């Protein structure tokens, strides 16, 4: 008889991003990464109770999910009893949902048992969990969070969770996530910024990037069908290999994209000790990535990451295709991303929600079949629902026509004639924000579009005339880039009820421009 244990960590995003202090965000990321690490699982001891776990029995430990095979009942019961308590006391605010099932290695119903475990985990997530730092009327509160005060440092009271995050920062300083970024991430750990004001560009803008793989659930279903007649051991090895290969592909993509896009910053930090690299990973788990970085580099990093994720998953999963005849994985995976630009002091939990909403919208628009991204510059004080925001703010609706100001998602590769391509958008951005081009007239055109399409067209005709009369403006290049972007021209900037001009102006206000 064997025991299959499953655990899911809930509240990860809230735990990491409930503060705007970068040191606490980094410390929280380190804590979460440590919970799922093999090092932690192998050293799982409490007082005189020591539970040794065979590394080969750890089937999955990424993305806040843990799956472990136990060979005896005593060890399984001990781990089930002690593990959630230890985690929740070590990371206040985190909740562990867990379940366990029994099975026989000789049976042919292992996949049914896996489904049973997942159903039990879903049920466990719906159970009420009580916070360990419950607030009582007589307990002093930490002013910044409103939670019970635990410790005082330099006249400021901290709650238990905030103190734990700072403790993680002091002892490890995000060592585990930097390990995932290869030698440069580990070697130059002290060169990364530790303050949010060092992260922002000269317009005090930062970017929160959230990327997620496409169709993972569907791929797992296809994998299950392909493994129906396979032995229990081979099924476990297949899932274990899939998990490790996805992790390897994601980690490598983050590492390579970082080293390429931030090469200048890395080199500068080596010669100037006062300069800090404006980049900070907060989640790298499975196919899920969340990064905070300088706004000027966000689009370039995301584009390169998505390109590398496609390439790396194709290379890594080729082993799975070969060993288990899983042809569905032959082409690798695609991913979508959302980039939320905001002021360095904007509440982080709002910005993360926006980045995730953008990622979801990109997935829906692409039907999860191609790598693409959406971005948005947050300028309001609060953000509740992106779809609602689009209907309220990003649609110009007059009596005759409705024009959508969201032109994306922007696709990474030319596949199935999908448009618009990100490369074409960036060329159009460069052409329409060139120092000799009157970009301000594009803002005037958008303003007039609210009131009178006829008058707005007059503005475009006038803009086209000015551009052709100015020898410093290359109208041929502008025409070619707009045509590639979506059959557009200077006198016709709306295609299929959408215009890219708002996105171009957003990027201009974020990255500087004129």
From TrEMBL:
<dbReference type="GO" id="GO:0051607">
    <property type="term" value="P:defense response to virus"/>
</dbReference>
<dbReference type="Pfam" id="PF22335">
    <property type="entry name" value="Cas10-Cmr2_palm2"/>
</dbReference>
<dbReference type="InterPro" id="IPR054767">
    <property type="entry name" value="Cas10-Cmr2_palm2"/>
</dbReference>
<protein>
    <recommendedName>
        <fullName>Cas10/Cmr2 second palm domain-containing protein</fullName>
    </recommendedName>
</protein>
<keyword id="KW-0547">Nucleotide-binding</keyword>
<keyword id="KW-0051">Antiviral defense</keyword>
<feature type="domain" description="Cas10/Cmr2 second palm">
    <location>
        <begin position="206"/>
        <end position="370"/>
    </location>
</feature>
<dbReference type="GO" id="GO:0000166">
    <property type="term" value="F:nucleotide binding"/>
</dbReference>
<dbReference type="InterPro" id="IPR043128">
    <property type="entry name" value="Rev_trsase/Diguanyl_cyclase"/>
</dbReference>
